[in-house]
Amino acid sequence: MPRQRAESGQATVLFALAAVALLSVASLSLDAGRAYIKTQQLKAAADAAALAGGQELPSDPAAALSVAVATASRNGVPSQDVQVQVNAQDTVVTVTTRGGIPYYFASLFGIDQGTFQATSAVAVGPISEVTGAMPLGVVWNDFAYGQTYTLKDGGGEGSDGNYGGLALGGTGADTYQQNLESGYAVPLTVGETLQTEPGTMAGPTQQGLEARVAAGAGYAWDTVPLGSPAVVDLPIISQPGNGRTDVTILGFAAFFLTGVDCSGDVQGVFLDAVTSGQFGGGASYGLQAERLIE
């Protein structure tokens, strides 16, 4: 009998020790889970801040810094815990967010606080591929941001029968008008060869763009949302030849449509715009792509 009582007492001690160990592991797991959530929150804030800052590059690196800090703050990271850097070429913005949590259970082992950080970086460059482009080709002419330009001639000033129209995915007025209304659904890339759509195409141009121009009513070029139908991406092309002819895409530019008339004359304001997409090493024509690189 005494031996049985001794064995029973040993089992109770072992059970108690095991329970304490399991409770400790479970408690530490709760702290680890909170640490993981905090790290994910910091990363999400850094991603959002870097993407917002990238929208200002390369033209305004100072704005990229302030916008990134403000965005991180809106996502729960105080400004004093945000570090933002822009590289010397004004093409990459890097955001580091920091934060900590008190430990509830790890403090039993002398660890009272956990401090974490997350880093995100966004790079921008001339966009190399666009989906949804307008069937209007523009010859580059040192455009200035915020200035209005003729994107398609209404007639009489074209080059050998070409007035700015492009044949994307087929020729003819119906295809041309549909592409104006909806954007060309197939990606276009820098270096690709296209055909022009000669003639004034006055009716299809006016009908295809009326709704887009109307969508921009009440906005200025520097307040219109980039997602508005009135903001369009156009290929920058080589100089057209005679009649229906081949042209090469040199790059892409964004314009805010401000007018279209019955002659097929189209007006738009040249924009400094950043969108998501692929970029390469080509020349910049105002439309930049951004992507997370870290």
Description:
The structure is a single chain. This protein is an alpha+beta fold and 294 residues long. It has four helices and 13 strands. The protein has helices at residues 2-54, 61-74, 173-182, 202-215, and strands at 82-86, 92-102, 113-126, 129-130, 148-152, 166-167, 188-189, 193-196, 231-237, 246-260, 266-271, 273-276, 287-292. Strands 5, 6, 8, 9, 10 and 11 form a six-stranded antiparallel beta sheet that branches. The radius of gyration is 29 Å and the shape is elongated.
Short description:
With about 290 residues, this protein is an alpha+beta fold. The protein has four helices and 13 strands. α1 (about 1-55) runs antiparallel to α2.
Percent in strands: 25-35%
Would you count the extended β strands for me? 13
Distance between the termini: 69 Å
Strand/helix succession: HHEEEEEEHEEHEEEEE
Q: How large is the count of helical segments?
A: 4
> Please, what is the average pLDDT?
87
Envelope shape:
elongated
Q: Which structural traits does this protein have?
A:
five-stranded mixed β-sheet; alpha+beta; 294 residues; elongated
Secondary structure topology:
Blueprint: H1 2-54, H2 61-74, E1 82-86, E2 92-102, E3 113-126, E4 129-130, E5 148-152, E6 166-167, H3 173-182, E7 188-189, E8 193-196, H4 202-215, E9 231-237, E10 246-260, E11 266-271, E12 273-276, E13 287-292
Parallel strand pairs: 12-13
Antiparallel strand pairs: 1-2, 2-3, 3-13, 4-7, 5-11, 6-8, 8-10, 9-10, 10-11
